[in-house]
Structure formats: C-alpha cells, structure tokens
Write a structure and sequence with these properties.
By secondary structure, the chain is mainly alpha-helical. About 75% of the residues lie in helices and about 0% in strands.
C-alpha cells in the first residue's frame, strides 16, 4: 500500500471513529465541564493549545485515540458554535 493510500485510509478510519464513538451531546457536556471548572485548562490562551488539552483529557474517557477526538472537538466548535 502506498503512503498516500495509507494516509487516506487512516484519515477515513479516524473520521469513522469520530462519528461512531464520540456522541456530540456527551462531548459537549464534557468540554463545558472542563472549560468552566478546570484550572489547568485556563492557563492555555491559544485555541490550538486548548484543543490539544481537551483532546488529551477526553480521549481515554471516550476510549479513542487523540486524532479522532481532535476531529470531533474541531467539528463541534465549527458546527455547534461552542466557545473554548
């Protein structure tokens, strides 16, 4: 399998995991809890740093790797207009 094919299939697998394993409503609740109550989170100022922190914090809770979690968080921000 070529590198390009592998990257394509890996990307598709991460998107599938995102849609199947990370319910949007539950993710939104978890993010709201962290952004309001977590002092560690509040030290981050840049959006990308906040997303990385959230992804690392939540991937184990949803039993997914960081990549699909990051995709889910970015989609939630984009389509649900939540503030992080």
């Amino acid at each position: 399998m070529s590198q390009d094919d592998y990257r394509f299939f890996e990307s598709q697998a991460n998107r599938f995991a995102n849609y199947l394993l990370i319910p949007t409503d539950k993710l939104k609740k978890e993010i709201e809890g962290i952004t309001k109550n977590n002092e560690e989170y509040k030290i981050f100022k840049e959006k990308e740093s906040k997303i990385n922190y959230l992804s690392c914090s939540l991937c184990n809770k949803f039993k997914v790797s960081e990549e699909p979690m990051t995709i889910a968080i970015k989609n939630l921000i984009k389509f649900s207009n939540i503030e992080i």
